Amino acid sequence: MSVEVPVLTIDGPSGSGKGSISKRVAEQLDWYYLDSGALYRTLGIAAINAKVDLTNEDAVAALINRIKLEFKRNEQGLWGVFLDGEEVGQLLQTEEVGNVASSIAVFPKVRSGLLAMQKSFQQAPGLVADGRDMGSVVFPKAAYKVYLTASAAERGERRYKQLIEKGIDANLRTIIQDIEERDERDKSRSESPLVVPNGAVYIDSSLSSIDEVVQQVLNIIE
User: At residue 132, does pLDDT exceed 60?
Assistant: First the structure.
């Protein structure tokens, strides 16, 4: 990792607010932004579209070299994820895609295939990278590290409200159960499990607003 280009990693479980916080911090710092989870979700969309056997590690990993994944500004000037030239932002938020992404993320060949892509986002003046192993695996020498979390109940409530606001039917109890199951998978997987990275500042956002958490993170860098 280039020591000249600073990296801020924000790791944590699903629904902890990593995306919202990371985007806001990146905007404040005028740094690049990387949502590693979006890359896995986009690969999940590609796997669904190609009707690949999601239990076949080789078949899923082979998709990485057959599709074009981009992370760039869209026409509105916002960060967007593109699959083969087409923005897939709305699809990324569905529970189906989230569960597929979590299931294929346990495959070592998938993780290694996407590792180089994630590292390539480290560009001047700096990078804010959010995910589940940014500070522990992808950018272990990052200058700044944060581990952001919240209770499963609070994360479920947030996710439920997001889906309802977008007009997507959702069941709160099911969402919380899915989050708890996903947490267990992420923590127990043999390859790059979800951990608190060495040197990371631990932040529990259960009772904090987005503005409060953003300020806490900015204070770390300042």
Answer: yes
